[in-house]
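Progress report, Aim 2. The chain analyzed during this reporting quarter is listed below.
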Amino acid sequence: MALDDDVALLERVAVLHVLGRETLRILAIGAETRRLKAGETLFREGEDADCAYVVVDGTIALKDVLNSGQPEVQAGSGALIGETALITQVRRPATAIARDDATLLRIPRNTFLRTLEGFPAAADKLQALLAQRMAETVAELARVRQRLENLGDAPQEPRPA
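Predicted structure tokens for the chain:
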């Protein structure tokens, strides 16, 4: 894939788009191409995560194996997988398997962080976006908490003996 194509792909990723074209160009230069055959595992739940992946083509299935009550999530072209690993050390919360032949861009955490150091304005934009997303998550959790509390206050029907 040509560098300009990689940059165009990264621009389609909402969380990366805010960084700007020049920053994304540097990220694209530092990214590594990874190809998977259908059925091949990209990573397993619980593994240390030191990078994120952007799906170039193909489909990646994300399965929560340990807490298998969650449905499988499909990630297609332009999807960012493992974004938290770009900024902090975490473990993979799911297993990722190629549903068909797939190509991905691997963005190592150290490359991402070094790039942000060189582009402080881009880092500020990313920080603002992440702060907004965190505020939205906190607000949603407050709504869920309120609903759960309301359920607890509801009269309970007697159970048959």
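The chain is about 40% helix and 25% strand. Residues 120-153 form the longest helix (34 residues). These observations will guide the mutagenesis work planned for the next reporting period.
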